[in-house]
């Protein structure tokens, strides 16, 4: 495996530090550089009162992630190891992957600071990347690990063509969102503001699959992504392997 995967580049600390400190004059973005408590308070106040621009908010997040990198990664690694040992979902997926000849464990599930605002990613030659700076809590990490482990299972079981086949990509995204627990009612309702009481799970899975397919280079637009997801929806949503049913 290589740490220089084309799809899962690690964050460059120097470039992030430079981004956090450059072009940050108050009055332009509203962001004030500095790690002291008073500066942090002023930045948070600017965000809460709507005085900081979107660019300023992103600079604030980059600076915060850079400052907390060591602690975020340590917490992520501790929680990862706990889940690998005690989470029924993670243990079952790990065992299912082993039965197919794969191996996912702490040596190739990496906790890193990411520049993209995503939870993680899977690469067949690399393993799983967990964006430590984006993990809200252990439950969020468990869902993210489960999502990427479903991708790993699909890669081994169904020989997914990751680069060219959008139908393959749509199918594994449908399955990963459906089986990981990230679309369960409580997470949608309390964290994402999706307050519908019926068909919530299906709509969440469809929405996330379309977003993922749309982000792929070979996808033309949202209409194209929606069409591809709809084409494979019935068979892929019903397929709960390696689980007997959707229970998260």
List the helices and strands and how they pair.
Layout: H1 13-21, H2 37-48, H3 54-67, H4 69-86, H5 88-99, E1 109-112, E2 120-123, E3 127-131, H6 138-158, H7 166-180, H8 185-191, H9 200-214, H10 222-238
Parallel strand pairs: 1-3
Antiparallel strand pairs: 2-3
Helix pairs in contact: 1-3, 4-5, 4-6, 5-6, 6-7, 7-9, 7-10, 9-10
Describe the structure.
The chain is mostly helical. A hairpin with a 3-residue loop joins strand 2 (120-123) and strand 3. It has helices at 13-21, 37-48, 54-67, 69-86, 88-99, 138-158, 166-180, 185-191, 200-214, 222-238; strands at 109-112, 120-123, 127-131. It is built from ten helices and three strands. The protein folds into two domains: 69-159, no CATH class; 163-247, no CATH class. It starts with 12 loop residues before the first helix and ends in a 10-residue tail after the last helix.
**How much is the radius of gyration in Å?**
19 Å
> What is the H-and-E element order?
HHHHHEEEHHHHH
Number of strands: 3
Query: Based on helices, strands and strand pairing, what is the structural class?
Result: mainly alpha
Global geometry = globular
Provide the helix percentage. 55-70%
Calculate the terminal CA-CA distance, rounded to whole Å.
Answer: 31 Å
Strand content: 5-15%
The low-confidence runs, each spanning 5 or more residues with pLDDT under 50, are 1-26
* Largest sheet, strands/sense/barrel: 3 strands, mixed
How many separate structural domains? 2
Q: Spatial order of the strands in the main sheet? A: 1-3-2
Number of helices: 10
Whole-number mean pLDDT: 85
């Amino acid at each position: 495996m290589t740490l220089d995967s084309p799809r899962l580049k690690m964050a460059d600390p120097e470039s992030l530090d430079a981004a956090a400190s450059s072009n940050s004059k108050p009055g332009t973005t509203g962001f004030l550089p500095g790690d002291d408590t008073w500066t942090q308070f002023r930045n948070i106040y600017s965000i809460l009162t709507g005085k900081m621009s979107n660019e300023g908010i992103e600079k604030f997040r980059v600076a915060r992630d850079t400052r907390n990198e060591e602690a975020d990664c340590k917490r992520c690694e501790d929680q990862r190891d706990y889940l690998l040992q005690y989470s029924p979902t993670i243990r079952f997926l790990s065992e299912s992957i082993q039965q197919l000849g794969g191996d996912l464990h702490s040596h190739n599930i990496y906790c890193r600071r990411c520049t993209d605002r995503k939870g993680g990613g899977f690469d067949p030659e690399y393993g799983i990347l967990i964006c430590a700076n984006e993990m809200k809590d252990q439950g969020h990490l468990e869902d993210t690990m489960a999502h990427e482990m479903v991708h790993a299972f699909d890669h081994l079981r169904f020989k997914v063509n990751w680069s060219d086949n959008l139908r393959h990509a749509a199918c594994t995204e449908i399955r990963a969102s459906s089986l990981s627990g990230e679309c369960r009612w409580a997470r949608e309702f309390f964290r994402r503001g999706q307050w519908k009481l019926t068909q919530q799970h299906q709509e969440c899975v469809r929405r996330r699959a379309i977003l993922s397919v749309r982000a792929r280079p070979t996808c033309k637009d949202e209409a194209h992504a929606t069409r591809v997801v709809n084409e494979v929806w019935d068979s892929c949503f019903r397929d709960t392997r390696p689980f007997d049913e959707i229970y998260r």
